[in-house]
């Protein structure tokens, strides 16, 4: 009789855990298939691994529920993998740092102890709902999650999530959000041939000194109202402008005459007088 009684007790203990299932979004696996029985001295323990299974493409990031124990005490709860838990007595909340999608994940290792081996034992976990809050603009275990929380390629992640035309922690991000070197960043982001906040940017967007800026960006030999630019693009006086660019000012009108026009006028005038002289000689 003693042997038969022991077998009955063992069977009762093996099947004391009742499955809890959450429909549609996934399944919490918490039954005898994930438990092992051990006996130490006169005490019996059940070590179980609670699992959660995502189905139909559902993303699960957490769930909560309450344990109900009959003739059992909860000895220990240890988090597994990416899961962490908080609790108030037998009410537990589980959160994973990595989204669970179309996979089965181990959540906790939990140990129960029978209060009285001779009595029936049971433990149930009643789910109070699952959470689906996938990480947005995060990299988790080499997986990229975009602005909508969907897993995306690295390129899409960069375009959606990385800062644009910004330097952060010595990292350069171009106009598309891609991490690049400084030169590529300058070419993509910095203003070209502009002066901003007393900083000069050349035709490639590189920050330069004023002299280099003038040589690359300022107009050459140009008059803009009362502003004059020499052949190197520097702002200069009218006199320096005329000298640098080889121009001559008409003393009567004040207009600027390029040297080549003066040369052409001189040739035409010379030819006119030569032809006029020859015409007179022909008449004589």
List keywords for this structure.
284 residues, alpha+beta, Immunoglobulin-like, 5-stranded antiparallel sheet, 4-stranded antiparallel sheet, 6 helices, 23 strands, 25% helix, disordered N terminus
Summed up, what is this model?
With 284 residues, the protein is α+β, with helices and mostly antiparallel strands.
State the low-pLDDT regions, or none.
Answer: 1-24
Structural class: alpha+beta
Main sheet attributes: strand count, strand direction, barrel closure: 5 strands, antiparallel
CATH architecture annotation name of the domain at 2-131: Sandwich
Tell how many strands the DSSP assignment holds.
23
| Average pLDDT level | 77
- The number of distinct helices, counting runs of at least 4 residues, comes to 6
Strand content: 35-45%
Overall form: rod-shaped
Q: What is the end-to-end distance?
A: 162 Å
Radius of gyration over C-alpha positions, nearest whole angstrom: 43 Å
Order of helices and strands: HEEEEEEEEEEEEHEEEHEEEHEEEHEEH
Looking at the structure, the CATH topology of the domain at 2-131 is Immunoglobulin-like
The share of residues in helices is 10-25%
What is the CATH domain class of the domain at 2-131?
A: Mainly Beta
